[in-house]
Amino acid sequence: MTPDSTDIQRLIDAALSEDLGGNDGIRSMAGDITSRAVIPEDAELEAVLTTREDVVVAGLDVALDVFRRLDPQAVLEPQASDGDHAAAGTVLARIKGQAQALLTAERTALNFIQHLSGIATLTRAYVERIDGTGCVLLDTRKTIPGLRALAKYATRTGGGSNHRSGLHDGVLIKDNHIAIAGGVAEAVARARNTGLPDVEVECDTLDQVREALEAGADTLLLDNMDVDTLRQAVALRDGANTEAKLEASGGVTLENVRAIAETGVDFISVGRITQSAPAADMGLDFMARDGTKEKDG
Fold first, then answer.
1. Is 202 marked active-site?
2. 174 is known as an active-site residue
3. Which domains are delineated in the chain?
């Protein structure tokens, strides 16, 4: 499921306003003083959006919507789809339209697709590392403010799954909640008494795992446990004759994610896929009249 189109347009407008200095700038392109000074109003250009490294594509439609926002008559021809693996040098889209508008939109469009494709690409790398284990990769709430819906879309595009979208749609009792409530059992009981479903509780130790299982938690987040401790937590869960799910989190890397998955946990959550995935290397290559690339954007 892609983010709501209205939300996407709101994000695009906010990003363009940031670059152009306000909504009036979006409508008139007056904010792009360089393009306005250097490029004739009637000039047109043709360009290709190209990836310069191997990527999993995410956010292509968002990027094209940025160009469309400033030039509604632009000819936009996608050559790939979100979720595709694209090798370095692959043309993702062909773009033709009013030169001032396309130059004005260029950086904002690239910011979106580079960030989202970076998330999808890193997510795919993690998913491939745990293939065949039955373990599911999850994202977290560690996202750039305002871009969570798109970041979580990029996670799904890369083959991962989403944890809760926000504080409003999932119970996760963390260490500070436990400390203030007076313990794991008390915190779980209070959540249960409000009628909230699917109670998840963070556990730092095996003693907390035992307490959470006895309290009837639906999911246990096993925080920063090493592989041997994770195996013991799985054994405790299996021995408790419960359907509780186990989620490993903290210190997960591409190097150790397979070993973590093989302990028998059900989920692994990785904050870095949305928090610090490197942006994909992409660019807008402008085409000369003979159809060859004229310059790299």
1. yes
2. yes
3. 5-122+281-296 (3.90.1170.20), 130-275 (3.20.20.70)
pLDDT of residue 197: 86
> Residue 4 has what pLDDT?
84
Predicted confidence at residue 15, as pLDDT, reads 94
pLDDT digits (tens, 9 = 90+) for 130-180: 999 999 999 999 999 999 999 999 999 999 999 999 999 999 999 999 999
The beta-carbon contacts of 176-180 under 8 Å, at least 24 apart in sequence, are 178/202, 178/208
Q: Given the residues 36, 107, 190, 272, select the one marked as catalytic.
A: 107
Looking at residue 196, what is its pLDDT?
A: 87
pLDDT of amino acid 294: 60
Q: What is the DSSP letter of 161?
A: B
Q: Which residues contact 283 (CB under 8 A, 6 or more apart)?
A: 49, 50, 52, 110, 296, 297
- 142 carries an active-site annotation: yes
Regions of the chain with pLDDT less than 50: 29, 297
Strands (E), the chain: 44-51, 55-56, 75-78, 85-86, 91-98, 136-138, 171-173, 199-203, 219-223, 245-249, 267-269, 282-287, 293-296
Q: Active-site residue among 10, 27, 174, 293?
A: 174
Reduce the DSSP state of residue 54 to 3 states and report it. coil
Is 255 catalytic? The answer is no
Q: Annotated catalytic residue: which of 139, 200, 202, 266?
A: 202
pTM: 0.93
Which entry of 52, 142, 231, 272 is annotated as an active-site residue?
142
Clarify whether 152 is annotated catalytic. Answer: no
How many whole angstroms separate alpha carbon 110 and alpha carbon 97?
17
